[in-house]
Design goal:
Layout (H helix, E strand, L loop, with lengths): L9 H21 L3 H9 L3 H33 L1 H21 L3 H13 L3 H12 L2 H30 L5 H20 L19 H9 L4 H15 L1 H14 L3 H52 L3 H14 L1 H12 L6 H29 L12 H22 L7
Helix pairs in contact: 1-6, 1-7, 1-8, 2-3, 3-4, 3-5, 3-15, 4-5, 4-6, 4-8, 6-7, 6-15, 7-12, 7-14, 9-15, 10-14, 10-15, 10-16, 11-15, 12-13, 12-14, 12-16, 15-16
Length: about 400
């Protein structure tokens, strides 16, 4: 299960990394063709297609919010291996449903099903927590974040190329990747959760609110969950308004938006793969989280105010680097939770991320609209980034107060 250095075996970790990479790529693969596919199955104009796109995204996030803790608790009861492989199989089936969907209702059912079983990242993170000693968790969580960043960067490029073949081609490709990786995991992935560390499945704890209560009752965990949720809302400013902001502030077309997001994703992947381990080894998880939170506050503030294109490119790369704050926060939270609740924790973190996916686009797009419409008292397209900077300032304060209280013993 682990080698002599306390790291997961190479084949098992390779499967975990491939799973998260495919997760990131799967979203990006289908993103370029979703408007055309929705128009194809509805026969509606682009504006109506955008509304349906919002419905699909919100439905997925709502299902993930409610079912993430259920899946996490199931992995604490039955182990990570069956849950993760089952999730990959369902994900592959979901992509196939979307590939052949004749109506918008088929697409909606597919997205709801995917949201209900969206266990890939949270269960993979629980697996890593199982097999990694505390000193290695930041580095191994960083590998997961790196895989997600690289997948996020590569997905739209590959999806755009496949769309030249057929509108449905990216969905078939995503399905093939998910199902092939499920087979790979079936062969190489050992179970990480020992039988004596499993606990009974309780429905009262398998809903997000019951899971929040159970974890919040643990000493020092409540503030960390609050911190994670607020930080996720702030970080979702990029997918929520980047395309709109780029067009309004810099006159970017779709290609330039894609290139800047590629730079962001690549920077995030490189930073989380190669930098977080040495940084944490030198200054610890708490200082890593605090330093990168403070740096990102400055980055977001300058992004919100600048109209200089070369500076924006520099800041985009820096923003990818500061994403290691979330990895450090995840590792700190993992060390505050017992071994038999790691799956529950990752399910809750997944639910909080899903909640942020619901809240942040509404909050950030409304803020953008308020400062860019014709009657706005102040024309400021970067206002959502200033709001995100303020939210991260709250996170830094929560983290500082947590450290001053119960947190010192955990770093």
């Amino acid at each position: 299960m682990s080698d002599a250095t306390g790291s997961p075996s190479r084949l098992a970790m390779g499967f975990i990394i491939a799973t998260i990479l495919i997760d990131g790529m799967g979203v990006g693969l289908i993103f370029p063709v979703m408007p055309d596919l929705i128009r194809e199955v509805t026969g509606r104009a682009l504006a109506d297609a955008a509304i349906w796109g919002g419905v699909l995204a919100t439905g997925y996030a709502v299902m993930q919010f409610f079912f993430g803790p259920i899946v996490g608790n199931l992995s604490d009861r039955f182990g990570r291996r069956p849950v993760l492989i089952s999730a990959l199989v369902v994900l592959g089936i979901d992509y196939l449903v979307m590939a052949v969907a004749p109506t918008i209702w088929f697409l909606l059912v597919g997205r709801l099903l995917a949201g209900m079983t969206a266990a890939t990242y949270s269960t993979a993170a629980a697996y890593v927590a199982d097999v990694s000693p505390p000193a290695k968790r930041d580095q191994n969580f960083g590998r997961l974040g790196a895989a997600m960043g690289v997948g996020f960067a590569l997905g739209p490029m590959v999806g755009g190329l496949l769309s030249g073949i057929d509108t449905r081609a990216p969905f078939y490709a995503a399905a093939a990747l998910a199902l092939a990786n499920a087979l790979f995991g079936l062969i190489v992935m050992p179970e990480s959760l020992e039988p004596d560390k499993r606990r009974p499945f309780k429905l009262s704890r398998a809903n997000p609110f019951g899971a929040f209560r159970a974890l919040g009752a643990l000493k020092g965990v409540g503030p960390l969950l609050l911190l994670f949720a607020v930080a996720q809302v702030a970080y979702f400013v990029y997918p929520a308004v980047w395309a709109f902001f780029g067009q309004a502030q810099f006159g970017f077309d779709a290609q330039m938006v894609g290139l800047t997001l590629f730079a962001f994703g690549l920077s995030m992947g490189v930073s989380q793969a190669f930098l977080i381990g040495p940084i944490v080894a030198r200054i610890g998880s708490y200082r890593t989280a605090m330093a990168t939170l403070l740096l990102d506050i400055a980055v977001l503030a300058v992004i919100g105010l600048t109209d200089t294109i070369w500076l924006m490119w520099v800041l985009t790369v820096m923003a990818g680097f500061t994403s290691i704050a979330m990895v450090a926060i995840q590792s700190i939270t993992s060390r505050a939770v017992p071994d038999d609740q790691q799956g529950e924790l990752q399910g809750v973190l997944g639910a909080l991320a899903a909640l942020a996916m619901i809240v942040s686009p509404l909050l950030m797009t409304q803020t953008f609209a308020a400062f860019t419409h014709e009657a706005a008292p102040l024309h400021l397209p970067g206002a959502p980034f200033l709001l995100a900077a303020a939210l991260l300032a709250i996170c830094a304060l929560v983290l500082w107060r947590w450290r001053a209280g119960v947190g010192a013993a955990l770093d």
